[in-house]
C-alpha cells in the first residue's frame, strides 16, 4: 500500500467504493486522514463494511469541512451531467481528485532522486495488454516493477514508493480526467476510436482526456504514440514539432523513425535505420494485428527506459497473454474456446474476429454507441452468433441476412448451443469466441466477472463431455 499523508488529521470524502475507491480509503486511513466513505449502491456499501470500513453518509454532512472529494473514476464528472456529489463539492470549493492524482502527489512529494519511474498507458484499445506486457518485459529483465491502475491492482494498493522501482499503470480516460500532476517517465498513447462519448460529450472531449497523459512530461521524458489512426498521427506530429522525445509506433506502416511491425516482424527504427527485433510468430501470447501494435508500443517504451533489444525481445516472446483478452481457455472435442470478455466495444471485437477464420460468436451485453455495424466485413467469418443480454435484439437486427444468429439471453445457453453447433459442423479449427462488443453491466459487475463465468461454463462442459466419454 502507498499511504497518503497529505490529508493527515483532515476530513476527506470518498465517493464510489469499487476497486479504486476502496484502495483510496485504505491509503488515506493509513495516512491518518479522517475518511468519510460512501456509495449510493447498497451492495457496494455492504462490501466495504465487510472489509471493516466505517461508512459515513456524506449527503448528510456539511461539505465545507471536507479537504477534498476523492471520486471514483466511474462517477460522471462532466457528462452527461455532473453527479450530485460533484456539484456539491464544486458549490463549496472542495477540490475533486482521483486515486491517480493521490498517487502522483505522493510521488511528487519525494525528492527528485527518490522517485520511481512511471510508465502510463492509455488508448481506446490495447491498454491492458500493453500495460501487462511492459510489466512482464521489465520483470523478465530483473527490474523492480509494479503493475496496476485500471488493470488488476488499484494504484494505491501497489507496493510503497521508492527510487529504482517501475510503476506501469493502465490509465483510462475517466482516471485521466481526475489527475492534474501525474508525470510519466514514458507516456504511451496507443490509438483512439469513438468510445465513452456519453462520458466525454464528443470525440474532442474524449481526446482531451486522453491527451492529459502528456501534460506534465519534461525534457527527459518520452512519449510513445500510435500513428495508425488520424488522432494519434496528429498528436505525434504536434509532439515532435515541439521538440519532444516521441517514438511513433505502427502495426502496418513502414516508419522512417520509430517502431513498426511489418509482415509479422518487429522492427526498431528509433535511430533511423530499421533493424529486425523479433519474428512475432515467436510470441504465442500475442496473436493478431492489434497485438503487433501492442508489442511495438511495449518495445518502444522499454527502449526508452534503457533496456536492451535482446532483453525486450526475450520478454515479448515469453509473454503468456492477458486474462480475458483472446485467452484460450480450453478445447473440447476439437472445439477451441476463446475468452475475449475484455472486448467491450466493436473495435476491440474486430481485432478478435480478424484472428479466426470461422467462429461461433457469443456477443452482447449493454450496447455501446454505434453497435456492431463496423464489424460488417467480418460477418462472413461468423458461422453463427449467440446473442446475450440487453443488446441481443439490436444485434440480431444488424446481423439479419448477414450471418446466422440466435438470441440466447444468457451465457449458459449461449455456451451450450455454440458448442453443440460447432461440434456438429465438423468445421476444421472451430472456435467458440466470447467477444461481446458490449459492456457487461446489464448482467455482470464487470468484464472480469463475465469472462470468469464463461471460463467456468467451459470447464464444467468439458467435465460433462469427459464423463460421458468414459461412461
Number of self-contained structural domains: 3
Mean pLDDT over the residues: 94
CATH classification, class level of the largest domain? Alpha Beta
- Distinct helical segment count: 15
Largest sheet data: 9 strands, mixed
Helix content: 25-40%
- Strand order, largest beta sheet: 6-7-5-8-9-10-11-12-13
Give the strand tally.
Answer: 19
Q: Report the sheet-strand fraction.
A: 15-25%
Walk me through the structure.
The radius of gyration is 23 Å and the shape is globular. The chain is 35% helix and 21% strand. It has 15 helices and 19 strands. Strands 6-7-5-8-9-10-11-12-13 form a nine-stranded mixed beta sheet, with helices on both faces. A six-stranded mixed beta sheet has the order 14-15-19-16-17-18, with helices on both faces. Strands 2-1-3-4 form a four-stranded parallel beta sheet.
List keywords for this structure.
471 residues, alpha/beta, UDP-N-acetylmuramoyl-L-alanine:D-glutamate ligase, 3 domains, 15 helices, 35% helix
Quick take:
The protein has 471 residues and is an alpha/beta fold. It contains 15 helices and 19 strands.
SSE layout and pairings?
Layout: E1 11-15, H1 19-30, E2 34-38, H2 42-50, E3 68-71, H3 84-91, E4 96-97, H4 99-108, E5 117-122, H5 127-140, E6 144-149, E7 165-170, H6 173-177, E8 186-189, H7 197-200, H8 203-211, E9 222-226, H9 230-241, E10 245-250, E11 258-262, E12 265-269, E13 275-279, H10 289-304, H11 309-318, E14 327-332, E15 335-339, H12 346-353, E16 359-364, E17 382-388, H13 392-399, E18 405-409, H14 411-425, E19 431-434, H15 447-470
Helix pairs in contact: 5-10, 5-11, 10-11, 14-15
